[in-house]
């Protein structure tokens, strides 16, 4: 069947409008769109447009296993979680917000606001990398998209669109890195507990704003075992994990889970899927050979101790087999790990996905 474009927007818009008409009969089970917020784990190119940022991935050897074989702003040898989740849901990868030149109308399939180095707290990106799009700024950008959706679909159409869209938020690691960084300013201002409480409180306020703008299906991930990434391991002569930063990652995650439960109980129609990234990473380290990984400590791309003395820059060397490495560079997972964790996010059990996975979230 040939689908006639409506207002020049093509088949995607037509399918969406048909979906609105049929929602009462529960015909539409898929997400209308995927809106992505977060840090470098799901950045698909926003940092390419930040002139002051010192964390970018628009150069080799990043993207070596991407379909184009070229660097594209992803901090990975290939695709990242944003790509894999969109594919599972049946939508194209949401484009980076900053690529929508001249206020172009955002696609109805979603937009990606994520930025390498971003944090929940406004100061995090500046402290670590001079420039990043904080979560609050990402939310401001989404507000602009929200207003354009209302203009295009009308208030009721935009409401249906947003209530059936996924809002994926992967963030928090950089805030902890900023605290435990050598010479940290914020470590002099707050105790560890005060700091993680501040992270949770700020996140809660931003999620409430997002809910007020129409978001009803949230995908939120906890902070992983970030003390086990190569840049943290290299500090120990034995290459073991940084126990302290891992401990506070778990304390933050505990507060995040409680906050999400409370937010759901007071927010009509809100549902969420929480991914225990920390538990998934620990399981991967303990059972890496089961999943086909043989190297869990050393970065694939870099130089020096654990390939973590130098970032993945053009002068760095990289491993010939990216599939058997957990880490691509000194911070980020390989495409293989992103794919594995995306599988868990989509249809994993309650051991790592609470209170439901994405597949179940799409049906509520």
Automatic annotation (TrEMBL):
Swiss-Prot/TrEMBL GO biological process terms: lipid catabolic process
GO molecular function: hydrolase activity, acting on ester bonds
PANTHER family xref list: ANTHER-SPECIFIC PROLINE-RICH PROTEIN APG (PTHR45648:SF106), GDSL LIPASE/ACYLHYDROLASE FAMILY PROTEIN (AFU_ORTHOLOGUE AFUA_4G14700) (PTHR45648)
Any Pfam family: Lipase_GDSL
Regions crossing the membrane: none
SUPFAM superfamilies: SGNH hydrolase
Signal sequence annotation: 1-29
Keywords in alphabetical order: Hydrolase, Lipid degradation, Lipid metabolism, Signal
Domain of life according to the entry: Eukaryota
Matches recorded under CDD domains: SGNH_plant_lipase_like
Provenance organism: Mikania micrantha (bitter vine)
Membership in a protein family: Belongs to the 'GDSL' lipolytic enzyme family.
Protein name: Uncharacterized protein
């Amino acid at each position: 069947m040939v689908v006639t474009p409506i207002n020049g927007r093509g088949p995607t818009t037509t399918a969406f409008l048909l979906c609105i008409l049929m929602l009462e009969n529960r015909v539409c089970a898929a997400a209308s769109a995927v809106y992505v917020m977060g840090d470098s784990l799901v950045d698909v190119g926003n940092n390419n447009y930040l002139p002051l940022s010192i964390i970018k991935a628009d150069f080799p050897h990043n993207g070596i296993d991407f379909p184009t074989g070229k660097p594209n702003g992803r901090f990975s040898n290939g695709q990242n979680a944003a790509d894999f989740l969109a594919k599972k849901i049946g939508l194209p990868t949401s484009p980076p917000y900053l690529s929508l030149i001249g206020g172009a109308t955002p696609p109805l399939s979603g937009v990606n606001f994520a930025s390498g180095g971003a944090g929940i707290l406004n100061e995090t990106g500046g402290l670590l990398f001079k420039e990043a799009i904080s979560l609050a700024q990402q939310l401001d950008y989404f507000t602009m998209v929200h207003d354009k959706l209302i203009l295009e679909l009308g208030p009721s159409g935009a409401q249906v669109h947003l209530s059936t869209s996924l809002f994926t938020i992967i963030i928090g690691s950089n805030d902890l890195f900023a605290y435990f960084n050598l010479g940290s300013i914020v470590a002099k201002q707050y105790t560890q507990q005060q700091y993680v409480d501040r992270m949770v409180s700020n996140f809660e306020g931003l999620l409430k704003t997002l809910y007020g703008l129409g978001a009803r299906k949230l995908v939120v991930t906890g902070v992983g075992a970030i003390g086990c990434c190569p840049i943290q391991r290299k500090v120990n002569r034995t290459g073991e994990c940084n126990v302290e930063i891992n401990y506070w990652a778990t304390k933050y995650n505990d507060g995040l889970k409680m906050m999400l439960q409370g937010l759901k109980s007071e927010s009509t129609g809100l549902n969420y899927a929480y991914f225990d990234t920390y538990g998934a990473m620990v399981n991967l380290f303990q059972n890496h050979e089961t999943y086909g990984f043989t190297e869990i400590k050393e970065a694939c791309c870099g130089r020096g101790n654990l390939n973590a003395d130098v970032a993945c820059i053009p002068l760095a060397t990289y491993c010939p087999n990216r599939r058997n490495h957990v880490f691509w560079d000194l911070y980020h997972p390989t495409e293989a790990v992103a794919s594995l964790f995306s599988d868990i996010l989509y249809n994993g059990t309650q051991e790592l996905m609470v209170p439901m996975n994405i597949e179940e979230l799409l049906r509520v």
